[in-house]
Amino acid sequence: MVDGDAFRSAKLAVVEVGIVGDAPAIAAALLGGFAGGSIARALPLSTSLWIGAVLQTVTILAFSWQASVGRNVGLLTFAITAEQFTGAIGTVIFVAYLSALCKNPLHTATQFALLNALAALGRAVFSSGTGYIVHATGWVWFFVICALAGLPSLVLLWWLQTRGHFERLGPVRIKGAYAFKRLLQENGWLPLGTDFPVEDISPFKTFLAAVFRVDARGYPAGGFQMENALTREEAIRGMTIWAAKADALEKEIGSLEPGKKADFVILDKDLMKIPAAAILQTKTVATYSSGRKVF
């Protein structure tokens, strides 16, 4: 509503606003997304966040310039495309920041959804009083005030940086990702699982990742942080007796012992000997549950 009134006060036709806000704005947003990804990949996370925050704050002043000039389609195009371009840059970089905070992609999606919902309060609730501000200050100063409203985020970013927050992310944080061997050494036992439905339910992929530290495509070459790789025996224990222990069921299942349920599978290959390339080719010949053949 406020933007529409601003355009009308600048004597811009609805069709002009619509044309500029359609294809040029969409193109700018797409380019901004690619630019944001390139920035996040090439620069440190803190630097990327500064770039996104400053650009988004400064480009609001383009609308203030538009309001002071009046009807000018070229300036209108610049203001809208600049806002879309920098907005996309900031969004992509912020998602990269959330991803660096979380090891589980589901957490990132949840946090991003919550932040989007919180951001909607600005449009749906807090913006209800903007008409009074416009009436009191005029459009030029209104957009200046909007730009100044972004300063607290810059202060927060500065505060986080001075506390060393970003030093614990990225290359530093990734060193603690999937540290199976280290966890095993500290705890003495380590349950493993397929993380279904986030990942494929196949236990062969779990075994491959635990021992050889690669995914089904063999990525990354040489294995991910091989110092945290488990031995084959440790991986089998992690999916059997240690997994049962995690559920406090180690006295009932998890190993073939007298008095326990006879839950086991027969495979066509020996996981303790075959090379990595053959693990995902392994087939289940038979499955037994409580001593009864079910497959």
Question: Which descriptors would you attach to this protein?
Answer:
3 strands, 15 helices, Growth Hormone, Chain: A, 59% helix, 3-stranded antiparallel β-sheet, 295 residues, 2 domains, mainly alpha
Describe the structure.
This protein has 295 residues and is mainly alpha-helical. The protein folds into two domains: 2-173, MFS general substrate transporter like domains (Growth Hormone, Chain: A), CATH 1.20.1250.20; 178-293, no CATH class. It contains 15 helices and three strands. The protein has a three-stranded antiparallel sheet, with no helix packed on it. The longest helix has 29 residues, at 73-101. The chain is elongated. The termini are far apart.
**Low-pLDDT regions:** 6-13
Alpha carbon gap, first and last residue: 64 Å
Given the C-alpha coordinates, what overall shape results? elongated
Distinct helical segment count: 15
At CATH level 2, the architecture of the largest domain is Up-down Bundle
CATH homology superfamily of the largest domain: MFS general substrate transporter like domains
Looking at the chains present, what oligomeric state does this protein adopt?
single chain
Quickly give the structural class: mainly alpha
Number of domain units: 2
Task: Note the beta-strand portion.
Answer: under 5%
Mean pLDDT: 85
Write down the secondary-structure element order. Answer: HHHHHHHHHHHHHHEHEE
CATH topology of the largest domain: Growth Hormone, Chain: A
- Give the class-level CATH name of the largest domain: Mainly Alpha
Largest sheet, in brief, is: 3 strands, antiparallel
Please tell me how large the radius of gyration is.
28 Å
**Fraction of residues in helix:** 55-70%
